[in-house]
Write a structure and sequence with these properties.
The structure is a homodimer.
Chain A: H1 9-23, H2 30-37, H3 41-48, H4 51-75, H5 81-97, H6 106-113, H7 119-141, H8 149-169, H9 176-194
Helix pairs in contact in A: 1-2, 1-4, 4-5, 4-7, 5-9, 6-7, 7-8
Chain A binds a DNA duplex through residues 1-4, 29-31, 34, 39-43, 45-46, 50-51.
DNA sequence: GATTTAACAGAACGATCATTCTGAATCAAG
DNA sequence: CTTGATTCAGAATGATCGTTCTGTTAAATC
């Protein structure tokens, strides 16, 4: 019998991603990976080479199926502050559905648990944050009356920091509305600053 | 020969703290703990009971020797926005000294790596964040022309989120000045919002 | 249907780790 | 000095983990 449930590498990666995301790299053993993916050890090793390489594949898969769908609205040409609000709400709602304290953001988790011991993960995290900054800068530049770009650049960096903080707090807080309140207050101060 | 270098449990805890802080819980083995503390396994086990309990002791030690000295100025009765600025600068300077990307905040690291698998760590992290919020609220209420307390409360929560984000980013960024710029921009928007 | 290929399940291996245990060494008290 | 308690260094233990290997089974090709 060939691969019973994960017929493609994408499916395999998605199942592995869930484990890494919710339990971290160290707490996810090869044994649980074999069980949850229904792919044999041999299959995983021939397809990816090892646990670490599978983790890298999950990193990219996470960006494709989680980050991009949620953040694309901020990156669109006509995006404004409301797009940023929608991005935050999407992510908070996801955390609230699965029950807070939630698994947070895969990238943010990798940034503290994996990146210090793995250069590849470190550059991936840096690229992710750069993407966020560019997206925020785009949305902020479409808000208010044409603010100077160095101003929106600085505010975009603040948005990136705030985003990382949101994820961090979603791992210990049990109150989704407290996160929503923080987002609303933050966006209000941003708006006040841009008009 | 009794304990050669760590004569007290406090010294032992401080040396262990450095390891946990810089390399995380999983990447810090009992072997490295024995080597860096110069205390025998037997000594560690009789003094603390195990690795996890030692970690909890390090958590409290971190708050005593790192958090409190840096954050006390925000908690003082007459504290204002400049105290918050000093707190951020203290922490960024610490990270820049040891070289970015740095070890970040022990509490923030524990929040993503240890808290999900350990209820005690989870409550400790929650208490730490509550302390931060109270401190920020104190400093914010002394700023501007007596803003309503629910306003400073909301802004204090934003400050906590921002703080967590700062630590998260300090683990992957190599540019301390980018962090300083984010802090300055953030504090400017806060000040503009309070006056 | 015979042969080749690919994937499987699970044992085996080597390494690491937290914890416990053993015997020696050190120090305090009389 | 001698006794007794304490601490040490390091081996032993039992468990876990990532990786590799072996025999077997299912699919694909002709």
């Amino acid at each position: 019998m060939p691969r019973t449930t994960a017929h493609t590498n994408d499916e395999l990666t998605e199942r592995a991603l869930l484990q890494f995301w919710h339990h971290g790299f160290h707490a996810t053993s090869m044994d649980t990976l074999v069980k949850t993916t229904n792919v044999s050890r041999h299959g995983i090793y021939t397809a990816f080479g090892g646990k670490k390489q599978l983790f890298h594949a999950c990193f990219e898969r996470y960006q494709d199926i989680v980050v991009t769908p949620a953040f694309a609205c901020v990156e669109e040409p006509g995006a404004d502050l409301s797009a940023i609000a929608r991005y935050f709400e999407t992510q908070i709602a996801r955390g609230a559905e699965s029950g807070l304290p939630g698994p947070g953001c895969f990238v943010a988790n990798a940034s503290t648990e994996t990146a210090p011991h793995d250069a590849i993960t470190q550059t991936k995290v840096a690229q992710h944050n750069a993407r966020l900054r560019n997206g925020f800068q785009n949305a902020l530049s479409n808000t208010g009356m044409a603010p100077p770009s160095d101003r929106t650049d600085a505010l975009a960096q603040v948005c990136v920091v705030f985003t990382n903080g949101l994820w961090s707090m979603s791992r210990t807080t049990t109150d989704a509305d407290a996160l929503r309140a923080a987002v609303k207050t933050f966006l209000d101060t941003l708006k006040a600053d841009l008009t």
